Amino acid sequence: MRVLIRADASVTIGSGHIARCLTLANTLRADGADVRFACRELPGHLLQRLADQGYVTYALPARYDAEEDQDIEAALPWQADLSALAEQIEDEPPFDWLIVDHYGLDARWEKAARGLAVRVMAIDDLANRPHSVEVLLDQNYSAQALDQPYAAWVGPECRTFLGPRFALLRDEFQCEPIVIKPRVERVLVNFGGFDAAGQVYATMQALQGFADLQVDFVAGLHNPNGQAMNDLVASRPEWRLHALTGDFFALMQAADLFIGAGGGTTWERAALGLPTICITVANNQQLNAQLLAEAGVHLYLGAHVQLEPGRLREAIERVCHDAVLRQSYADQSRVLVDGRGARRIADALAARADNAATGQGA
What does the angle CA 98 – CA 100 – CA 104 come to, to the nearest 5 degrees? Predict the structure, then answer.
C-alpha cells in the first residue's frame, strides 16, 4: 500500500498535525506500507525530521501568490497547493491513499486530488467545512460528545471515526496508568512543539513560589522567551529546561501533574491517567477542552490570553494538595483512551484498500 500525507508544521501552525500523522505513518510503515510526506517549507517546518526518520518527503512552497494569511485556520489557495504537489510527484503512479491533515484545505482540494490517489482521507478537528473523502478522522472528545458534527460536511460514502478511541498515539501509550500519590512531587510543563504563545514562561513564573516541586519545562523550538527562561532555571536546581526531549513519554510517566495546552498531548495524558491543568493556546482547542472539563477529565482554566497569573497559582495549589481530585481526573481520562487508535485507523485503511483490490467495493 502506498500512502501520501499532506500536512504542515510551522511556528504559527505548531507541530501537532505532523506529530499525529507521523504516528499513523509509523503504524502503516510497520505493516509494510510505503508512506511519504508533502509539507510546505514554512518557518519551523519539520521536513528534515521526517527525512531523518526514513520518510521520503516532498517540499512545497512556503507561500503562494494569492495567499494573504498564514494563520493556522486560514484557507490555502487550493489550486496552487495542488499544482505544487502534483509537480512534485508527477512521475509517481497514483497512491492508494492521500491523507490530508490541514485546516486550510477542503472538499475542493480533495475532489481535485483524485488524480493523485485512489482514495482520500481527511483528519480534522473543526467540523466547519465540506470534505470529499472516503474516511474522516476527528479524534477529539467534542466529535464524540456532539450530535453528528460532520453530518453537513461529508457524503454518505464517507466512513467517520470520531472520538478519543481513535486518537493517534504511539504504541508506548498502551500502558498502565501512573500512580496517583498523596502529594504532587514532579510537574511537567509543555505547550506544544513551538509554544508561540509563550505560555511555558508564564507557567514558570506562576511556579516560582512552589519550592518543593521538581519541574520539567519542555519549551519547544524557537521559544520566544528562551533567554528569560534560562535565567530563571539557572537559580532553581529543582527545575530542568528542555528545548525538546528524546523521551517525552518517560517525562510524562515520571510526572504527577501536567500543565499544558489542549492539543494532541491531551490524549497522551489521558492514556497515562496524568492529572492535568489545561490552558488553551489556540481557538480550535477551546471547545474540546471545555467539554473534557465538564466530563471531569481535567481542570480547564480557559484561553491563555484571558488567564490571570494568580488564577494559575491557585489552581496549582489546589490540585497539588487534592489527591482525590487528581485520582478522579485520572480515572475519567482512562475511560476515554486505550492507546490503540492508530492501529484501528491503519487497519481500516488497509481493509478499504484490500476490498477495492479484490473487487468488493472501494
Answer: 145
Q: pLDDT tens, 293-336?
A: 999 999 999 999 999 889 999 999 999 999 999 999 999 999 99
User: How many angstroms separate the first and last alpha carbons of the chain?
Assistant: 14
Burial of 157 (0-12, 13-18, 19+ CB in 10 A): exposed
3-state secondary structure of 337: coil
CB atoms within 10 A of CB 308: 11
164/63 Cα distance (integer angstroms): 33
Cβ atoms 174, 339 nearer than 8 A: yes
Query: Which pLDDT tens digit goes with each residue over 140-157?
Result: 999 999 999 999 999 999
Domain-embedded: residue 292: yes
Within this chain, do residues 185 and 287 fall inside the same structural domain, yes or no? yes
Q: What contacts 157, CB < 8 A, 6 or more positions away?
A: 134
